[in-house]
Amino acid sequence: MLELLLFLAVAQALFISPRKGESVKLGHETASFGKQQPYDVRGLIVRPFDEFLCSETGNYSHFKDNIALATRGNCSFFQKAWLAAEAGAKALIIGNNASTRIERKMIRLDDFKKDAPDVQIPVVWISGKDYEFIVEQMKNYTIQAFLNGEGDVAVKKPMFHLIPPLVLILVWMTIIGMYFCRKLVMRYISRQHRMSAMNATPTIPYRPVEEESEEDAMILNSRCVICMEDFVEGEEVSCKKKKCGAYFALQLKALPCRHGFHASCIDPWLAEHSERCPICNQSLLQYNPGREYEMEVKSPQEGRT
Q: What region holds the RING-type domain (predicted)?
């Protein structure tokens, strides 16, 4: 009989026929029991008489120094490997009898890992289609195989163990997203309230506070605490600080607490920073923004009479 070389290597097995010079690659997967990588085995492929390699009373003397080939079924993978190792086989190739692919969901080569210490030979798995191909070739050829761990095929494993942490991460991210969305909405609502309060704050001329009219005064302070510029009596005042703008006439704004500021100083404060008075920390939102402040605005001439 002609000799046929079969290589299980380099991501897939390599088959060479001297007669045709053809090469075929076959994938395999190494079991989690038995000899692990790296391994490098060479020998003839032989089959058991019962095909399944399950009988403990069977004659497997022809396995010695060769590579055993068996099909799936009738007994555990570990029992097949144990019988092959006891008979002196260098390695065991198990073929799937129900599939053309190497599928983790169909095979569990690691089910007997706890019983594995007695098995010291490599055990690999090939698809049913590849198994039938080798069996068919063995009818006409003597097959010699070179087997090593480089031929392992990456098999997709179930991802079910990732579902709980992924769900937990998704829930956590949802909670964080809702928190930040609520924070943005509340910030927007707060800014709208501050803008309403700012727009409702009247713009008035400044009049110095006299002792006898302090209760009726619209502005109690004589200086803008934001730009630290003194107010000037009259309908218009000049703010010379950069926070207000350079040298242009401005009106004063009186907050409900009767503290006054340059309009261009207090408006950015109320719109972007806080709704509270920079002097007394009293909130404008405590007042009804829609209500008109009942303040009598008098001209400087009327104030002097």
A: 224-281
The token duo for 300 is 């400087």
- Span 99-148, pLDDT tens digits: 545 444 434 444 444 444 578 888 888 888 888 888 888 888 777 777 76
Topology of the domain covering 194-304:
Herpes Virus-1 (3.30.40)
> Which pTM does this prediction carry?
0.45
Q: Give just the sign of the alpha carbon dihedral 61, 62, 67, 69.
A: negative
Regarding the domain delimited by 2-156, which CATH topology (the fold level of the hierarchy) does it fall under? Answer: Glucose Oxidase; domain 1 (3.50.30)
Pairing assessment for the beta strands 2-9 and 141-148 based on DSSP bridges: parallel
Whether residue 158 is preceded by a cis peptide bond, meaning omega within 30 degrees of 0, is no
Backbone angles phi, psi at 207, to 5 degrees: -130, 130
Domains of the chain, by residue range, sit at: 2-156, 194-304
pLDDT tens for 201-259 read 666 666 565 544 555 556 777 778 788 877 766 544 444 444 444 334 457 777 778 78
Q: What is the DSSP letter of 272?
A: I
Task: Give the tokens for residue 153.
Answer: 């095929």
Place of tokens 């050829």: 141
Give rounded-to-5 percent helix, strand, coil for the chain. Answer: 30, 25, 45
